[in-house]
């Protein structure tokens, strides 16, 4: 496969990605050191991985905060029984979820208990998540297994987004690449922001990479390795945030970069050309 981006594009992407290193998904607010600590264990523990899997099983792009509030709220109500949701009565789980599950998609709301119970089934059948992940030769196999065994986690999906998102969340663990060698070469999630950046900024001569889910995943996996050879997962939040709508700040990338004017992609981004004239100069 040829180079995914030009040297100039890669240099701009590396600069663009720097401030996103401080961007942490909202579930981390509930861990020790976060703004709303609830869990009495860290993300480097097996229980921490279990929380991340419960959170990822409910993941929807743009719905990260509600998913975090559901998992954090369940722990406040049930404590360590949150890892045994497949063993407690359904009526008790539904009572614990009352007030936590909100949104306009009623069908999605009805799925939440089944999804969480299915994830807990996976815990009991698999045992230590850390041993399972660290012993895997290829995390693509892990993504397939997660998608196939946990309800509504993407069994029919070619992208396996929820599973890939969970595996990306694991990258926040200390000594990640050393502890989980099977993550090397893994294709991290590809979201709508990736598509926008691909078409608007990188604009490759050939659009063949966008013909199938597999080619998209491979293309961005290569781009991550070219941009950050030792830490290719670092590129995911930066690309996911590109022109992602958020309240009050219009786009998440603008919020993180402090506007379009200081953004390293400003000269390449067609949207920035329209927004920069309205920004105040420093």
Characterization of the model:
This protein has helices at about 5-15, 45-55, 65-80, 90-95, 105-125, 130-135, 140-150, 160-170, 175-180, 190-200, 215-225, 235-240, 250-255, 270-275; strands at about 245, 250. It is an all-alpha fold and about 280 residues long. The mean pLDDT is about 95. Helix 2 (about 45-55) packs antiparallel against helix 5 and helix 2 (about 45-55) packs antiparallel against helix 8. The chain has a two-stranded antiparallel sheet. The longest helix is centred in the middle third of the chain and has 21 residues, at about 105-125. It is globular.
Note the overall shape: globular
Largest sheet: 2 strands, antiparallel
* Average of the residue pLDDT scores: 93
Q: In percent, how much strand structure appears in the residues?
A: under 5%
Question: From N to C, what is the helix and strand string?
Answer: HHHHHHHHHHHHEEHH
Strands, total number: 2
Q: For the terminal residues, how far apart are their CA atoms?
A: 42 Å
């Amino acid at each position: 496969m040829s180079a995914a981006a030009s040297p100039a594009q890669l240099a701009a992407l590396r600069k663009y990605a720097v401030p996103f290193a401080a961007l942490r998904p909202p579930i981390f607010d509930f861990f020790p050191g976060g703004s709303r600590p609830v869990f009495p264990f860290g993300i480097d523990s097996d229980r921490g991985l279990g929380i991340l899997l419960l959170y990822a099983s409910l993941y929807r792009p743009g719905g990260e905060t509600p998913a975090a509030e559901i998992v954090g709220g369940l722990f406040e109500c049930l404590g360590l029984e949150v890892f045994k949701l497949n063993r407690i009565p359904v009526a008790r789980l539904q009572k614990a979820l009352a007030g936590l599950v909100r949104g306009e998609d009623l069908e999605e709301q009805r799925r939440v208990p089944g999804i969480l119970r299915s994830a807990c089934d996976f815990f009991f059948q698999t045992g230590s998540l850390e041993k399972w992940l660290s012993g895997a030769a290829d995390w693509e196999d892990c993504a397939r297994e997660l998608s196939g065994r946990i309800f509504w986690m993407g069994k029919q999906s070619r992208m396996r987004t929820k599973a890939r998102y969970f595996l990306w969340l694991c990258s926040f663990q200390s000594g990640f690449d050393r502890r989980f060698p099977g993550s090397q070469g893994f294709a991290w999630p590809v979201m709508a922001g990736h598509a926008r950046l691909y078409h608007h900024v990188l604009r490759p001569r050939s659009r063949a990479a966008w013909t199938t889910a597999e080619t998209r995943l491979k293309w961005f996996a290569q781009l991550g390795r070219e941009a950050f050879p030792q830490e290719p997962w670092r590129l995911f939040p930066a690309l996911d945030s590109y022109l992602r709508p958020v309240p009050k700040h219009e786009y998440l990338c603008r919020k993180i970069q402090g506007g379009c004017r200081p953004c390293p992609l400003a000269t390449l981004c067609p949207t920035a050309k329209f927004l920069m004239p309205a920004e105040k100069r420093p």
